[in-house]
Design a protein that fits this description.
Length: 265
């Protein structure tokens, strides 16, 4: 019998429901469908965004009704109620709930939803690109798990968008390191970092900036080989992006490089 690691629940007849402490809704005495009663009441509170009250109902099902058909959905609802609160602490707790669900219900019809919400809760904890990217890497990993395991899921488009959002943040963080090297005039280090961004994330939505600064870094190295290598990156920028703040400068560079090449002939 599956049991989640929770402290012992109070006796069912003393369950507290939504609303203030003076208004208590209890399971009807001798009810044969107490789990359904709890689930319905939990949903009522959830729709009103009364996250704590809703969670109390759902938690009772999880803790006290191991054979209930409502238990998997109640477990997911507990996680969603934490997401609803949307605090740093509640998002961490949401991650734990969805991980537990996937551990105990790996073949559930709603496992794809749990995996998506797990990745989503991690993505909501991502920090700015210049800060620690631990949660970003975790979000990318869990979103990738979804894409690998549930290619036919109806929520696949949402998962793809989530993956792109997290992957972009990770790539932006790496790009900013390269930009720091570029501005510090360590062009060899900048080239290596920009190349890494393109290698690990060729679909990075901000790659126009990577193309431009990689090409500029190669020009700054000021060798014949590096100058020749720079031109294709400027051209890729022009080909792949109809809108970019780097287009005008890239066109000028292409003209300069092709003009210089023609003059040498």
């Amino acid at each position: 019998m599956i049991r989640f690691f929770r402290p012992p629940a109070v006796v069912l007849l003393t369950i507290l429901a939504a609303g203030c402490g003076s208004q208590r809704s209890q399971v009807p005495p001798a009810s044969a469908e107490a789990d359904q009663f709890l689930f319905d009441r939990g949903n009522e509170q959830f729709k009103q965004k009364k996250w704590l009250q809703a969670r109390e109902y759902f938690r009772q099902i999880v803790d006290n009704y191991p054979q209930s058909p409502y238990r998997p959905d109640a477990k997911l609802a507990v996680g969603d109620s934490y997401i609803g609160e949307h605090t740093t602490e509640s998002l961490v707790l949401a991650v734990n709930e969805f991980r537990e669900f996937l551990t105990f219900y790996p073949t559930s019809p709603r496992a794809d939803y749990a995996q998506y919400r797990l990745a989503w809760a991690l993505a909501e904890q991502m920090l700015a690109a210049e800060r620690d990217q631990t949660n970003t890497r975790e979000a990318v990993k869990e979103a990738q798990v979804f894409l690998d395991r549930y290619p036919n899921s109806p929520i696949l488009p949402e998962a793809r968008a989530l993956y792109r959002k997290a992957k972009d943040r990770l790539s932006e963080a790496s790009y900013r390191v390269g930009l720091f090297y570029f501005r510090s005039r360590w062009y060899a280090g900048a080239v290596d970092r920009f190349r890494e961004v393109l290698r690990t994330d060729p679909e990075y939505t901000g790659r126009d900036a990577v193309y431009f600064h990689l090409a500029e870094s190669l020009l700054k190295l000021n060798t014949e080989a590096s100058k020749a290598e720079a031109l294709p990156y400027f051209e890729r920028l022009l080909k792949e992006f109809e809108r970019s703040s780097y287009l005008q400068d890239a066109r000028r560079r292409v003209e300069e490089l092709k003009g210089a090449s023609g003059a040498q002939r």
